[in-house]
Design goal:
9 helices, mainly alpha
Length: about 200
């Protein structure tokens, strides 16, 4: 679907440029846009490589176990079904830590790893568990202590104080996480009650 949408937008741009006699601006926009996309990918690739390497070091050194233990009270509160599943708790902890550091792109592979661990213990593989649903919401509305990716983008595009958004980021991410987690807790409880009736 997205491929069709992009193709339609490009066709409209080219036709619009040809009709209005502004093909020079269209080709200039294509070239500058592709240059900016490559620069953005390279700047984000460095951060993703750094976090990917750090997560591997953390896992092999046992630091991920310590991180999981440190975050254990919060993880246990949000995921009571995972008391006996340490690997799933570790994977969730790593994802939450990456999101808290503002490394959303680096958190994606960690989130996929966490979801695989949750799927391994799913009694009904064709249906998402409460833990899976809670994790998707937590991953989507994560609290960010350091908005690393946004700060890097702001610095790249010339912001004089790239970190001056930190107060707004803390407020909006905490509020979003609270609303999301309360909503998912209520909906999971309702879902369990409906399943008990069936």
């Amino acid at each position: 679907m997205m491929n069709w949408l992009w193709a339609i937008l490009m066709i409209i741009s080219v036709v619009g440029g040809a009709v209005t006699g502004q093909m020079g601006q269209v080709s200039e926009g294509v070239l500058s846009g592709s240059k900016q996309a490559v620069e953005l990918c390279i700047s984000l690739a460095g951060m993703m490589a750094l976090w990917g390497g750090l997560s591997t070091i953390m896992e092999q050194s046992g630091l991920s176990n310590r991180l999981a233990k440190f975050m254990s009270p919060a993880i246990m509160l949000l995921f009571p079904e995972l008391r006996l599943h340490e690997k799933a708790r570790q994977a969730i902890s790593m994802n939450v830590a990456a999101n808290m550091l503002g490394l959303g792109n680096a958190a994606t592979p960690l989130g996929l790893a966490a979801m695989k661990e949750l799927q391994k213990i799913n009694p009904h593989p064709s249906k998402a568990t409460n833990s899976m649903i809670t994790f998707v919401v937590l991953n989507s509305v994560s609290v960010q202590l350091l908005p690393t990716t946004v700060t890097a983008l702001r610095a790249q595009y010339g912001a004089q104080s790239p970190m001056d958004i930190i107060g707004a980021v803390w407020f909006s991410s905490v509020l979003g996480a609270a609303v999301g987690l309360i909503a998912v807790a209520l909906l999971n409880r309702r879902r369990d009650a409906d399943e008990d009736r069936c």
